[in-house]
Write a structure and sequence with these properties.
heterodimer, A: mainly alpha, B: mainly alpha
Chain lengths: 149, 82
Amino acid sequence: MIDDEQDRPVQFASGVLGWIWPGLGHWKNGEADRGRRIMLGVLGLFLLGLLAGGLDCVDRRDDYLWFIAQAGNGPIAFVADAANNFFLKQGQVGVMLPLSLPGGGTAEINSFKSVGFVNEVGTLFIAMGGLMNVVALLDAMRGPRKVAR
Amino acid sequence: MNLVAWIPIVQPMPGMIAWWWFWVIPLVLGVSTIWKAIRVPDMQHYWREVFTMTAQVLLGMAALAAGLMILVRVIVPLLPVD
């Protein structure tokens, strides 16, 4: 380690800010440049994930284990999940198609739902961004570095 | 669906299934961007560090893939079958 980090008090506010918006915790610590680059990385992964797999990649109900990792992105993950519910699951866009379930019965899925590799790539991008943002906010909670960066 | 009819973010990207493996490059670049933003002591050489880490991870993955391919296609067929 470069500086004596054990002497620094834990900055919970920086952690919370880092969760609310990626990089904001470092910005509060006076490391705006570092925060901007964290924001670039996390939001880049988030947007690329949505571009690849669409809104269906963030699904708190159907993919809740993935969503635990995706929630690390902050409120934007919950907004994407709400948008998925509103636009895709309620059929505001696309066409609701009937689907026969293996155990009998039917359900409806949206024609814009992503499947296979497309869904997996998008889900993975957003989950990786969330996990990396957790690393970043834990770093922000250590407080500002004593060595000028 | 063609690209003109695509609604970005709402719909999945059309045609990407053929080159899904290519997405490992932006994925690794994104992870490196965040990791190096946390770890590098001096931001002056930040992007060099990011691209170096990206190249290292991609080369490591390519080496693992090559090793697994040799194992599956060369070594395993040489094993005796009872």
